[in-house]
C-alpha cells in the first residue's frame, strides 16, 4: 500500500504538484524490498500524450522545466547517486521535448539538490535511515515546509512524530489530500497565511474592534 501511494504521490501530474513527494526516507531494515517494489511499479508507467487512454505519465510543463529537472538528476549522479530506471523503457522520452521519463535515485544524500530543493518533476530520491530521530532531522533539513507524510500502522506514533516535523500538514498513510475542515498552510519558504477551514475565512473578513471604558 505504501509503495503504491508513494509512487502515485511522486509522479502524479508528472511530479508537478505542490504537495508531491520529493524525497523518501525508509527504515534500513526494509529499504531493499521497498526500493524493488517502487522501481517495479514505476516501470509499469506509460509515458505518452495525455489524451491517450493508456497514458499514466504526461509531459512536464515546458522544455525549460525538463532541463532544470535533468540538471538536478545529473548533479546527483555526479555526486554518487545511482539511477534505477532505464530511460529506454519509456519510448516517448525524447530530448528537446517536454516528455521526460520518471527516475528513481538511490545512494543519495543532502549534498544533492534532488534531496534539498523542489525538483518539481517525475524524479524522487530514496534514502535509508536508521531511526525516527534521523528521519525527522532529514525531513526538517529543507527550506520548505508544506506537507510531509508518515507511513505506519500506529496512529499514536504518527501523532508523536508529527509534532516534531516542520510542515503545515503531516499526513498519515496518504500524501495528497485536502480536507475543507483542515487548514491548508505551509511554513518556512512554503508561504504564509492559510486557506480552508474556519481559519481560512479570516483573510476574507474585515475585523472591527469596539474598545469601551466606563468612567465613574
Specify the number of helices: 7
- Sheet having the most strands: 4 strands, mixed
Distance between the first and last residues' Cα: 70 Å
Helix content percent band: 25-40%
Based on CA atoms alone, the radius of gyration comes out at: 20 Å
Q: Strand share of the residues?
A: 15-25%
Q: Kindly report the average pLDDT value.
A: 95
Query: Order of strands in the sheet with the most strands?
Result: 1-4-3-2
> N-to-C SSE series?
HEHHEEHEHEEHEEEEH
Unreliable segments of 5+ consecutive residues: none
Number of strands: 10
Overall morphology: globular
The structural class is alpha/beta
What can you tell me about this protein's structure?
This protein has 216 residues and is of the alpha/beta class. The protein contains seven helices and ten strands. The strands form four sheets. It has a four-stranded mixed beta sheet, sandwiched between helices. Helix 6 (155-162) links the parallel strand 6 and strand 7 (169-172). Helix 1 crosses helix 2 (31-42). The longest helix is centred in the first third of the chain and has 16 residues, at 63-78. The radius of gyration is 20 Å and the shape is globular. The mean pLDDT is 95.
Amino acid at each position: 500500500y505504501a509503495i503504491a501511494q508513494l509512487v502515485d504521490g511522486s509522479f502524479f501530474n508528472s511530479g508537478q504538484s505542490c504537495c508531491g513527494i520529493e524525497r523518501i526516507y525508509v527504515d534500513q531494515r526494509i529499504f531493499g524490498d521497498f526500493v524493488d517494489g517502487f522501481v517495479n511499479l514505476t516501470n509499469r508507467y506509460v509515458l505518452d500524450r495525455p489524451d491517450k487512454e493508456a497514458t499514466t505519465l504526461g509531459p512536464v510543463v515546458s522544455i525549460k522545466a525538463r532541463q532544470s529537472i535533468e540538471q538536478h538528476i545529473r548533479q546527483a549522479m555526479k555526486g554518487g547517486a545511482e539511477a534505477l530506471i532505464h530511460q529506454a523503457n519509456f519510448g516517448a522520452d525524447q530530448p528537446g521535448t517536454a516528455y521526460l521519463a520518471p527516475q528513481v535515485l538511490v545512494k543519495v544524500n543532502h549534498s544533492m539538490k534532488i534531496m534539498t530543493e523542489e525538483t518539481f518533476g517525475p524524479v524522487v530520491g530514496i534514502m535509508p535511515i536508521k531511526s525516527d530521530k534521523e528521519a525527522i532531522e532529514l525531513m526538517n533539513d529543507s527550506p520548505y515546509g508544506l506537507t510531509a507524510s508518515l507511513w505506519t500502522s500506529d496512529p499514536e506514533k504518527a501523532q508523536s512524530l508529527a509534532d516534531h516535523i516542520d510542515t503545515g500538514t503531516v499526513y498519515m498513510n496518504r500524501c495528497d489530500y485536502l480536507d475543507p475542515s483542515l487548514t491548508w498552510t505551509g511554513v518556512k519558504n512554503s508561504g504564509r497565511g492559510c486557506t480552508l477551514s474556519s481559519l481560512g475565512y479570516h483573510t476574507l473578513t474585515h475585523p472591527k474592534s469596539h474598545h469601551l471604558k466606563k468612567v465613574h
